[in-house]
Amino acid sequence: MFDVATLPQSPNAGTQGAAVPFDWRLCAPGPVANFPWKDYAQAAGVVSYVDPLAVYALALEDTLQTAVILSLFTDRRARDDDALPSGVAERRGWVGDEFVSAQGDSWGSRLWLCYSGKVTGDVLEKARFAAQESLSWMVRDGIASRVDVVALWAASGSGQLDRLAVRPTIYKPGNTSPVYDVLWGTSIKRYAQ
């Protein structure tokens, strides 16, 4: 299985305050080539252009990194019985879910439902379940033999345990040690009870 590479963000990337734990980067550009195109919307008729463009490609790797990122951090559609966060009216989700082959199979996670005004005792369990649910396709598809998820409160810059973090641990068939074990801090902030 090959995956689009997700690489750690460089500390000098100029993204002050946007501490994103990954970056989808392109490989180094290839040689510049001329790409012809036509503009059919001109009043004078069809106008031809040629633009010199560098050719880019996505970096590929054979890990689970991007699959985990997309599974956890894209919004799965909320079920009818899910309580939506305050001020949210739509149930989100991905339009492609209408065309999935397995009934009940959806893309993304419902972690976004953990944005709430106050922390209740079940927020960690809701987050753990949402992450587990979003990664369960790996076991169904035979990519992993087991997926374990832990949710916990982690410290932010203030030193307080005020950010939700999820830690998926993924095991491949025949392996006793995990092939993926990363602690993901989310932007979900813990509010006072």
Number of helices: 3
Please state the CA-atom Rg, rounded to the nearest Å: 21 Å
Oligomeric state of this protein? single chain
Structural class: alpha+beta
Order of helices and strands: EEEEHHHEEEE
What are the main properties of this structure?
25% strand; 193 residues; two-stranded antiparallel ribbon; alpha+beta; four-stranded antiparallel beta sheet
Describe this structure in words.
By secondary structure, the protein is of the alpha+beta class. 13% of the residues lie in helices and 25% in strands. It is built from 3 helices and 8 strands. The strands form 3 sheets. Strands 5, 6, 7 and 8 form a 4-stranded antiparallel sheet that branches. Strands 1-4 form a two-stranded antiparallel ribbon. Strands 2-3 form a two-stranded antiparallel ribbon. The longest helix has 13 residues, at 123-135. It is extended and about 65 Å long. The model is unreliable at 13-23 (pLDDT under 50).
